[in-house]
Write a structure and sequence with these properties.
alpha+beta, D-amino Acid Aminotransferase, Chain A, domain 1, five-stranded parallel sheet, Dna Ligase, domain 1, six-stranded antiparallel sheet, about 425 residues, Rossmann fold, binds glycine, binds adenosine monophosphate
């Protein structure tokens, strides 16, 4: 089969590697990909235009389109393919626009959760005309206050604020001054949930579903989860607290009602559902849905999938995912993200990365890298490479990650040394 994967980050690197290992894959194209992904497929630069992506698929007779990031899904790439007579036979892994609203509109997703009795924090949504009411509502809550822009805001649209006056000011910023543009035309105020987070991934054809390995990501730049939010500093899979009892609750209270809800809403959903969960005293609550895999969770989740992922994609195209036998590796996988010093604020690009050819028993999933004119691999983003290793337990996997990281260097490389530590008490 011929497959086109859209994306260029660590997540897509992990997906590309897995696709390349399938006996069903004849050819993998990745647009735009990155220098590290060349090992697993042919990188092409088609751009974001759906028509061009469609033309490429027609020309190359692509069978399966795998959409890595959320933006093309929210913008309707799946609808585009299903509305074109020459493209509708292609299996698109990723929901249509309506399903993508689970991620694209927090107001939509919270209303969906409430309608289908899916446990989540209490909330109310406000527009610019309800500003006074919103401030009154804030006063009825205990701090910290959780404010969320309704739409996509590049991962920055959630504010957690301890002080009431500051929260009121931020409400003004979001609703009156459109701090996040169109995304904050509506703002959700949510009850704060205290607990520890994990990420659950479900692959579905809209009817049946398979639960992929659970993971935890580390979002903040600083150790012990301090400092600014990032695109993710590392991940581990599995998550010790997400034991069978917890996962049974997740399946019964969250996954099954989510799939049933999608069916009742006539949302034909083929692809990944990423459920961001808060574990509140061993009870799972949904923080958010995403309509794609997580980054950097995928770097720890995908290596643990032993069965053929392309077979799953193919079965999704035939509405037969129920026939897929998902096999999971029992070992632990940990991923540590190497980032450019200064990230997530100002950082340099173009620094030569040394030591990549010395790595042992480890996978380097490239994110922000490229080749310079001298054919050296250089940094090309904030998050540069995920170093991913297996181990019989979390400590062993982490030891291997950090041993390999010691062999890699570039000017102002930074990483967190405490990935997984909070889970190993
Ligand atoms: P979201 O974009 O909805 O995932 O929110 C970003 C992050 O904010 C989450 O990963 C949580 O760490 C935090 N968060 C969001 N909603 C809540 C909530 N209701 N209670 C506590 N933390 C939250
Ligand atoms: N790791 C969180 C996300 O991908 O949104």
């Amino acid at each position: 089969m011929k497959i086109l994967l859209l994306g260029s980050g660590g997540r897509e690197s992990a997906i590309a590697k897995k696709i390349s290992e399938s006996r069903l894959t004849d050819k993998l194209f990745i647009s735009p990909g990155n220098v590290g992904m060349k090992e697993w497929g042919e990188c092409v630069s088609i751009g974001d235009d759906f028509e061009k992506i469609g033309d490429f698929c027609k020309k190359e007779k692509v069978d399966i389109l795998v959409v890595g990031p959320e933006q093309p899904l929210v913008d309707g790439i799946s609808d585009w393919f299903s509305n074109d007579k020459d493209l509708k036979g292609i299996t698109v892994i990723g929901p249509k626009k309506k399903g993508a609203m689970l991620e694209g509109s927090k107001d939509f997703s919270k209303a969906f959760m409430n309608k289908y009795n899916i446990p989540t924090a209490k909330y109310k949504t406000f527009g610019v005309n309800d500003l006074e009411e919103a401030k009154e509502f804030l006063k009825t809550l205990k701090p910290p206050y959780v404010l969320k822009a309704d739409g996509l805001a590049a991962g920055k649209g959630v504010l957690i604020i301890n002080d009431l006056l500051e929260a009121e000011k931020e409400l003004d910023n979001m609703l009156l001054d459109k701090k996040f543009g169109k995304a904050s035309e509506k703002v959700l105020i949510e009850e704060f949930l205290k607990g520890i987070e994990c990420s659950v991934f479900v692959l579905t054809d809209g009817c049946s579903y398979k639960v992929l390995p659970v993971a935890k990501d580390y979002k903040r730049i600083g150790e012990k989860d301090t400092g600014l939010n990032t695109g993710g500093m590392g991940s581990v899979s599995p998550v010790p607290f997400a034991d069978n009892m917890f996962m049974d609750k997740v399946e019964k209270n969250i996954i099954i009602p989510t799939i049933q809800g999608l069916q009742e809403e006539n949302i034909d959903y083929k692809g990944f559902i990423f459920i961001g969960l808060m574990n509140v005293e061993q009870e799972p609550y949904v923080i958010e849905y995403n309509v794609r895999m997580g980054d950097p969770e995928t770097e720890s989740v995908f290596p643990r999938i032993k069965s053929d992922i392309v077979e799953a994609f193919n079965l999704i195209g035939q509405d037969r995912l129920k026939d897929y036998k998902l096999e999971i590796d029992d070992r632990v996988v940990t991923s540590v993200m190497l980032v450019s010093g200064g990230y997530p604020e100002h950082y340099e690009k173009g620094n030569v990365i040394n030591g990549l050819d010395c790595l042992q028993d480890c996978i380097a999933f490239h994110a922000g890298t490229k080749e310079n004119e001298k054919k050296e691999i250089v940094t090309n983003g904030g998050r540069v490479i995920s170093i991913t290793c297996f181990g019989d337990d979390m400590q062993k996997a982490l030891n291997k990650c950090y041993e390999n990281i010691n062999k890699i260097s570039w000017q102002a490389m930074y990483y967190r040394k405490d990935i997984g530590k909070d889970l190993m008490k």
